[in-house]
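Much of our argument rests on the idea that a fold can be written as discrete symbols. The record that follows shows the chain in one-letter code together with its fold in token form.
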Amino acid sequence: LVNARTLASPNIVIILCGNKKDLDADREVTFLEASRFAQENELMFLETSALTGENVEEAFLKTARTILNKMESGELDPERMGSGIQYGDSSLRQLRQPRGSTAQIKQQCNC
């Protein structure tokens, strides 16, 4: 963690993912231990299961939300070299709308 924060931006967003949540009987680290470690090291924390899909997408969404919040507050500036963030090609960017949302329906019917 020290290396990540030293070599990257001090405002780097790091998430600790406890994997194989579905194998609770084989657990080597308790939820409380992992949660405490994450809190002491200023990390986000989620337990995930690739088998069931639990919290897998949420890990990415939570990380993205945190990055966006830091950009909006000015903690992270994509324009600053070494921030670890850069804007993608705007022609390739799409805003993802929830399925069945009004915007998506209007776009499909050209209303």
Observations:
- The radius of gyration is 18 Å.
- The helical segments are 2-7, 31-40, 56-73, 102-109.
- The first strand starts at residue 15 and ends at 18.
- Confidence is low (pLDDT under 50) at residues 95-99, 101-106.
